[in-house]
Amino acid sequence: MAGAVGHSEQRIMSQKSTIESLLEKAGIQVDGPEPGDIRVHDDRFYARVLAEGSLGLGESYMDGWWDSRRLDDFFAKFHDVPLDHAVVDKYLIMNALKARLFNMQNMRLSKRVAQQHYDLDNAFYEKMLGPHMQYTCAYWKRAQDLETAQKHKLDLICRKLHLQKGERVLELGCGWGGFARYAATHYGCSVTAYNISEQQVSYARKWCEDLPVEVIQGDYRSASGEFDKVAAIGLCEHVGYKNYRTLMETVHRTLKRRGLFLLHTIGNNASVSTADPWFDKYIFPGGMLPSVAQLSAAMDGLLVLEDWHNFGPDYDRTLVAWQENVDRHWDELKAKFDERFRRMWRYYLLSLAGAFRARRIHLWQVVLSKHGALGGYEPVR
């Protein structure tokens, strides 16, 4: 019996040593003094991460097996070196195989993310996002608070699209209707918006009921009609690599000859066919981030590239502001959500903040035209 106990302790010490040596490469210590260091509360953490990779890291945090005073700092360091290649992630391999065999973002499967994530609770999102109900990166260039930064983002998109009074705008994936409302109110446009989330569609229709805004509960692929401008703000992360071309074909089909299209999306440094396993299970089923190569291949021969703007560090600041809002309102929210949900949500927002800070992922606004902007396109910043 003593020998078995001793062998078990040796195995735990070996697993701990392996994890500690990996973390040291990123400047992270177990029980260290820095805000981004970690505290391990359960020694099963080490075996779980080695066996389950990203999923084990996230689930063990949700279970309270480890903590960090600044989870965003931890992930900024974590993503600064390729630690994710040091552990064989069997779940990532399995998800990649499924993605190659099946279209994981077809019209049926694409509804999963709406049901699991976007239909979560409108009141929760109101507390987190603020009055503009913008669940995409804010623009902080001339802003000091989230509300102003989100307003500036909305106006930036309108200016990049050269919106004019009376124009017809198609929005693919409209969230709670914030952009449609802004474009109709401040630029005098009529907006037709498509969204698969029942809760978001209901909210957007009510919020925009006195404006020339039509909100259709439907997949972006079903969009029809002809429009002066098209916008997809935060949709592309849910499209999937097998459907990027379909998205561009939808834009080409619905855009007038001299129209403009703005794509606002998180972007990846490398081309992938699946998402991080923890995010796929708990946050965005079927989600994945496009690369430059994937988007350029999708638009090839269909659309003309006019401008490509990267302001990824602004998403770091946006995510931290969202987490601060959740913390500020937690006493009101905890009647509906338990502590495990709170840890899951914190992990989601702050792990992404760290990834943006490390420049592993980015925020792109890409402006495209159907047949080229006559006289050239002047970039807007």
From TrEMBL:
InterPro entries recorded: CFA/CMAS (IPR050723), CMAS (IPR003333), SAM-dependent_MTases_sf (IPR029063)
Top-rank taxon: Bacteria
A biological-process GO annotation: methylation
Single GO molecular function: cyclopropane-fatty-acyl-phospholipid synthase activity
Signal peptide segment: none
CDD domains noted in UniProt: AdoMet_MTases
First-tier enzyme category under EC: transferase
Keywords linked to the UniProt accession: Lipid metabolism, Methyltransferase, S-adenosyl-L-methionine, Transferase
Keyword Ribonucleoprotein: no
Record-listed E.C. numbers: 2.1.1.79
The family this protein is said to belong to: Belongs to the CFA/CMAS family.
Protein name: Cyclopropane fatty acyl phospholipid synthase (Unsaturated-phospholipid methyltransferase)
